[in-house]
Amino acid sequence: MRKLENTYNKKGFTYNLIARTDNKAIYNQYDGYGHLIGHECFIVQTVNETEAFGVVFPAREKYPTDNDFGVTAWSVGRDIKRAMEKYNAIGDFKCKGCSCELTSDYSLRTKGYCYLCDTNITLEELLSDNSI
Ligand SMILES: [Zn+2]
Hints:
Strand content: 25-35%
Structural class: mainly beta
Strand order of the largest sheet: 1-2-3-4-9
Helix content: 10-25%
Number of strands: 11
Order of helices and strands: EEEEEEEEEHEEH
Distance between the termini: 38 Å
Bound molecules: zinc ion
Shape: globular
Largest sheet: 5 strands, antiparallel
């Protein structure tokens, strides 16, 4: 498994790793002039080995894409204290059913289970438009 780099560049920004576990990471974000813009923290997701155009890309951890923000990744501003609070909140929840790791507010009815594995939530409720 190829790991995330300690420093990477994306869209003209430079990101430096501040802290991480197997499950989560937090980077600071600098613009091209060396100004601190903010921090980004995210749940580390992985992609399996893929092959394209005859080239094999090894299994790897991936950086969040635009679609991940608000779901598994968060822009948490320049304040390092606030940023670390968000970082520390990630991964506190690990579902006892499917082992997915999410932020703590995913337990709806039964503590320790995500809404998909929660036996106290019926399929009808899941498929209903009403909130659980
Ligand atoms: Zn689950």
